[in-house]
Amino acid sequence: MAKTPDHEDAKRPRGKVKEAAVWLMMAMLILGLGGFGVTSFSGGVTRVGSVGEVDITTDDYARALQNQVAQFSQQIGQPISTQEALAFGIDRQVLQGLVTRAALDNEADRIGLSVGDEVVATELMGMDAFKGISGSFDREAYRFQLDRTNQSEAEFETNLRRDVARELMQGAVVGGFAAPAALTDTLYAWIGERRGFSMLRLTEADLTAPLAEPTDEALKAHYDAHLDRFTKPEAKRITYAALLPEAIAKDQPVDDALLKEMYEDRIDEFVLPERRLVERLIYPDQAAADAARAKLDAGTTFEDLVTERGLTLEAIDLGDVTRDDLGEAGEAVFSAEDGAVVGPLPSDLGPALFRVVTVLAAEETTFDQARDMLAIEIQTDAARREIADKVELIDDLLAGGASLEDLAKEAALDIATLDFVASQQGEAVIEGYPAFRQAAEAVQQDDFAEAILLEDGGVVALRLDEVVPAAPIPFEEARDQVVADWRQDALTAALSARAAEIMAEIEGGAAIGTFGIVEVTPEIARDGFVANAPETLLSGVFQMEEGAVEVVEGPGFVGVVKLDRIQPAATEGDEALALRDALARQAEQAIAADAFAAFTNALTTEAGVTLDQAMINGIHASLP
Predict the structure, then answer these.
(1) Is the peptide bond before 434 cis (omega within 30 degrees of 0)?
(2) How far apart are CA 454 and CA 430, in angstroms?
(3) Are 278 and 242 in contact (CB under 8 A)?
C-alpha cells in the first residue's frame, strides 16, 4: 500500500536539489506539450507553410481540410475519415488552394491593396449566418458562429478584409476577356451541325445463301485457333455445408387457424374494390371550369384543354384511385365509362374535369386461392427460426474442430463441392448469395471454417480444398460451345462480305431500300442516340461526306449506312443565339481561368513557397 505522508512530513522543507529537479521536469513537460501543439493545432508551431511574407496557419489548413472532407462526404452520400480523404488527394487540393490564396494576399500586401473598415462592415452586415430573427445583423449570432469555428472577431475580420482585397485582384486579372469570334464560330459550327442518314441493319436473312454446316475438321481448327475462348478460368474448389430456408420450409407444420387469421389481417391485399385510372384537370374557379366544359362539348379535345393550362398528361395523372379517394367527385367518376370526361366536379384543389382512362374491375382472392402463398410464408419463417436455433450448435461444433463433413451429420446440413470463379455466376443456388460469394473470394488455404449467415436467414460454412488452375475444356465437352462460336464468327464474316457487296451496288446507283427495311434518321446531333447500334456509329457518320456509303460493324452488329444530308448549324433563331452565347461564355471562362492560373503561378514562383510537411502530417494524424 502506498504510504500516506503524516503532518510532520508535510511540514518538512524540500531540499534545493529536489526542488530544482521538480522545476526542471515541469519545464520539460511544458516545452514538450508546446512542441506537440496542445492548444488548437498551434502550440509551438503555428503554420504549415508560407508564400512570401504570408503564413498558411495550422488552423487555416485544418479548418479548410475538414470543410473539404465534409463536402466530399456529402457528394458521395456517406461520411469518410480524414485518412480516406487523403487517398483521394483532397489534402493536395486544399493545400493548393491555400497556397494560391496566400500568394494573392502576399501580392496585395506588396502593392498596398486593401479595403477600409466601411467595406468590411458592409460585407459583414450582409452575411446571412450572422443575421438574427429580425433579418438584420445580430452581434450575438456573430459571436456564437465565431465561437463554433474557434475564431476571434479580429481574426475573422482580418480574413474578411483579405478576402475582399483578393476578389478585387482576381477581378482585375480575369475581367475583360472576350472569346475570339473564330473560336466561338468554329465550336458552334461543330456542335450545331446535324446529319441525316439511312441505315440498313443486316441479319442472317439478308444473306444470299445459307451458312454451310461446319465439318468436324473445321470445328477442331476453330477450337485450336481460339483456345482462349474454351478455357476454364482458374477456380477455387470449395466444399461447403449449408442449411437454406427453402430446403426445409416444406417440412414445417402449418396451422390452418393461423392461416385464416393472416388472411383476415391482410384482407386489403386480397379483396380490392373497383378502381379507375383517372386524369384530373383543375381550374382556378368555377367559371373557368364551366368555360372549359363548354369548349369540350363544342369539340375541343381534352388534350388541347390540358395544353391550354400549360400542363402535360403526366402532370394531371392521378394514377390508380378508388371511389373514396375522389371524395365528392367519386360517384360521378365511377359511373362513367372508359374515356369519358365528367365535371366540373369539386376537388381538394378546386373545380376540375375528370377523365376516366381505364376501369379496373374489383378483384378478390379467396382464402383457398391465397392459402398456398400464406402457407409458404409461414413455413419459410419457421424454417428461418429453426436455422437460427442451430447457429449456436454450428459455432460450437466448428470451434471444437469438427470438419464440414462432421458438421453436416451432426447439424443436418447439406454438403457439396463446387468450383468457384469470382467473375462468374455459377449454377449452384448457394452462389446467388452475396455473403457466400464474399466469403468464397476471401477464403484461403487452411482457414478455419466459420458459420456465415446468409441474407435470407440461411447459414453456410466453407473451406478451400484447392486452387484449380486454368485449363482448356476438352474438345468433345466443349463441342456445343465450339459450334455456336464457329457459327457466330462465320455469320459475322458472311454479313461483312454481304455488306461490302451492298455498299458497292449502292455506290453504283442502286437505292438502299432495294436491299431491305431501311431506318431513316432525318436529323441527329453528334451527341444523339441510335438504339441497338454500336457507339462508333455516330462518330463515323459525322466523318462521312454527303452521299457517301459506309459499312458499320460492332459487337453483334453489321450495317450499311448512307449519309443523306449534312445540315449546317442554324445561324438564326433563339436557340442558335442561346447556344452561341453559352459557348462564348464557356470560352471566356476557360481563358480567364487559364490567365488567373498563370498569374497565381507567377506570383507563387516569384514570392517563394515553403511547406512544413511534418506539421501537415501531424494535422492529418490529429483529425478523425
Answers:
(1) no
(2) 9
(3) no
Three-state DSSP class for residue 375: helix
Q: pLDDT at residue 499 above 90?
A: yes
> 241 near 559, Cβ under 8 Å?
no
**How far is residue 384's CA from residue 407's CA, in Å, rounded to a whole number?**
19
Backbone angles phi, psi at 495, to 5 degrees: -65, -40
Choose the CATH number for 194-225+479-567 among 1.25.40, 3.30.420, 1.10.10, 3.10.50: 3.10.50
Please give the full DSSP string across 606-618, using - where no structure is assigned: HH-EEE-HHHHHH
For residue 476, the one-letter residue type is E
Helix (H, G, I), strand (E, B) or coil at 51: strand
CA distance 562 to 237: 54
Report the alpha-carbon distance of residue 546 to residue 564 in Å, rounded: 6
Q: How far is the C-alpha of 164 from the C-alpha of 171, rounded, in Å?
A: 10
What is the spatial distance between Cα 97 and Cα 149, in angstroms, rounded to a whole number?
Answer: 20
For the stretch 195-231, what's the b/e string if a residue is b when 16 or more beta carbons lie within 10 angstroms of its beta carbon? bbbbbbbbeeebeeeeeeebeeeebeebbeeeeeebe
CB atoms inside a 10 Å sphere around CB 519: 14
**∠11-15-19 over CA atoms, to 5°?**
100
Tell the CATH topology of 235-254+368-469: Chitinase A; domain 3 (3.10.50)
Q: 351, 450, 370, 456: which is closest to 404 by C-alpha?
A: 450
Query: pLDDT grade, residue 45 (50/70/90)?
Result: low
| Nearest-5° Cα angle at 80, 78 to 85 | 135
**pTM score of the predicted model:** 0.53
Q: What is the mean pLDDT of the chain?
A: 87
Determine what percent of the chain is predicted with pLDDT higher than 70.
93
Query: What is d(CA 512, CA 547) in angstroms, rounded to the nearest whole number?
Result: 12
Tell me which CATH code domain 274-361 carries: 3.10.50.40
Whether residue 165 contacts residue 119, with contact meaning beta carbons closer than 8 Å, is answered with no
Which residues have CB under 8 Å from 332's CB, separation 6+?
342, 343, 345, 354
Q: CA 246, 250, 253, 254 torsion: positive or negative?
A: positive
Report the 10 Å Cβ neighbour count for 562.
23
- Would you state the cell numbers that stand for residue 506, as one nine-digit string? 449502292
**DSSP per-residue letters across 528-575:** ---TTS-THHHHHHTTSPTT-EEEEEETTEEEEEEEEEEEPPP-SSHH
What confidence tier does 8 reach under pLDDT thresholds 50, 70, 90? very low
Which one, of 536, 529, 553, 397, lies nearest residue 461 by Cα?
A: 397
Q: Does residue 7 surpass a pLDDT of 60?
A: no
For residues 186, 191, 192, 196, the Cα torsion angle rounded to the nearest 10 degrees is: 120
Q: What's the first-to-final CA gap in the chain, in angstroms?
A: 40
* Contact (Cβ atoms closer than 8 angstroms) between residue 560 and residue 506: yes
Q: Are strands 459-468 and 194-201 parallel, antiparallel or unpaired?
A: unpaired
352-360: strand order across its sheet: 317-322, 275-282, 352-360, 341-345
CATH of domain 47-175+606-622: 1.10.4030.10
Instruction: For residue 362, count CB atoms less than 10 angstroms from its CB and return exposed for 0-12, middle for 13-18, buried for 19 or more.
Output: exposed
